[in-house]
Structure formats: C-alpha cells, structure tokens
Amino acid sequence: PGWAPAGHIDVGGGTGAATWAVAATWPGDRAVTVLDWSDPALALGREIAAAHPALGDARWQRARIGADLALPATDLVTVSYVLNEITPADRTALVDTAAASARAVVIVEAGTPAGYARVIEARDRLIAAGFRVAAPCPHSAACPIAPGEDWCHFSARVSRSSLHRQVKGGSLPYEDEKFSYVAATRLPVTPVPTRVIRRPQIRKGQVLLDLCEPDERLSRRTVTKRHGDLYKAARDASWGDGWPPADH
Ligand SMILES: C[S@@+](CC[C@H](N)C(=O)[O-])C[C@H]1O[C@@H](n2cnc3c(N)ncnc32)[C@H](O)[C@@H]1O
C-alpha cells in the first residue's frame, strides 16, 4: 500500500500491454522502457502509446532476451506472456536478471498447466533471491497445489470489438482470458489473508469458496446466511479476490 514504481521495464513487452496495465494500476509519471526483439511490435506499441498521457515518453528499445541481457536498476520489471517463448535456460537467466535489477517483479503466463508450471518455477527463483510474494499467494512458502493435479489460474473478462470478433472468428462480445501470475518484491508485503482460487459457487442460502490458505493449505469454506454481512460479501466475491474483504 502506498508504493508506486518510479521506473518500469517491460521485458518482451511487444506492443506494450503490460505498460498500459502498470499505468492503469499506478497512475502518475515514471520512466518506462519496453524491451523486445521485434521492431514491428515496438513500432506499433510506440504508435499506440503516443496518445497515452503517461506513456508518451516511454522508450521502445530493441533487445534480445538471453544470458547476456543486462537490465539497469529499476523499481518494477514485468514479464508478460514471454516465458513460454524462450528456452528454459533463458527463462532462468531472465528471472534472475529481473530479481537482481528490480525491487518488484510481475510475471504473467497463460492460465494453463504449463503456464502455471513456468510461474511456479519463476516464483521459486524469486523467493530464493530474497523476494516475498505479494500476490496471488497468501504466503511465500511452497505452493500447496500438487503439480499435475491442478493449476493456479485466474480469469479476466476482456471485451471484444467487432474487429476482434472478425479476426478471431468468435461471436461473443467478450473473451475470458485465463492467466497465471506472480507478483513478488523485496519491499515489505502484506498478502491477502486467503485467496479465492475458483469461481465461487452460489447455492441457495450459501456460497462455497475455494481458498488458498496462509498455512500452505487449500480449503473450501461455506459461508451461509447465518454469517450476515460476510454472506453478502461472499455473494459479491470473485475468483481471484482476497478473502475476507479488507473491511470485514
Ligand atoms: C506473446 S508476446 C507478449 C507481448 C506482451 N508482453 C504482452 O503481454 O502482450 C511475446 C513477446 O516476446 C517477444 N520475444 C520472444 N522471444 C524474445 C527474445 N528472445 N528476446 C526478446 N523478445 C522476445 C516477442 O517478440 C513478443 O513481443
């Protein structure tokens, strides 16, 4: 709480989706650098961001992710949907380089078993480098999800324009993008008490919440009408939220 990055490097940033997300999360000015090896992606990203009040001065720079990638000291490094495109050795090197240069690192991958596995591997490396997990986990100990049995992921509804629908051959005006992520930092963290790790199931008079607990456990809690305000909050809870809400 109260922290905002003064500098941001988006590695494998492409057209800059993560820079837009960071600008929306932490309004205000900061030094932004987008690194990617694709000139066309950088050129398009620069063009799209030109009108954004906080991204007009961003640097769009050609760089190849590899063992020789050097990053200057910065507050925040994002690596979004990139780990799946690079070799295991480059993945390791990139996470270690990010950990060495940034005070906070956010890694996002597709919400698939393989994406989750890459996130967990990165999470382990960040913790080994002295980072603490700010989200989604309520702790920085081992993930309680048994590999191969399940995977931690969340879902974001993204609206589709008619052009999106045309290009993707879809008919719905939205898509539910599944993603896995970890946000870790060297700064003090206050993780959520527990995290809702599935879509809550609303039944008559009760809500079933699947939670990741702070003691390296998964649980299912049933919140009923008898819980009063908490029941109302449970009906409003979404997959990915912290539980209980901060005001309960
Ligand atoms: C799926 S896109 C993700 C782009 C952006 N981060 C986002 O979330 O929308 C993967 C990006 O990684 C870049 N990339 C893949 N391998 C790379 C490498 N070895 N060095 C630099 N960039 C790389 C690609 O050019 C592409 O822009």
Describe this structure in words.
The chain has helices spanning 17-25, 39-49, 88-101, 113-128, 162-168, 229-236, and strands at residues 7-11, 31-36, 59-62, 74-80, 102-110, 132-135, 154-159, 174-185, 194-196, 201-203, 206-212, 218-224, 242-243. It is built from 6 helices and 13 strands. The protein is globular, with a radius of gyration of 19 Å. It folds into 2 domains: 7-185, Vaccinia Virus protein VP39 (Rossmann fold), CATH 3.40.50.150; 194-243, no CATH class. Helix content is 26%, strand content 30%. The model has no long low-confidence stretch (mean pLDDT 96). Strand 4 (74-80), helix 3 and strand 5 (102-110) form a beta-alpha-beta unit. With 248 residues, the protein is α/β, with parallel strands linked by helices. Strands 1, 2, 3, 4, 5, 6, 7 and 8 form an 8-stranded mixed β-sheet that branches. The chain binds S-adenosylmethionine. S-adenosylmethionine binds at residues 12-14, 17-18, 36-38, 41, 64-65, 80-82, 85-86. S-adenosylmethionine binds next to helix 1.
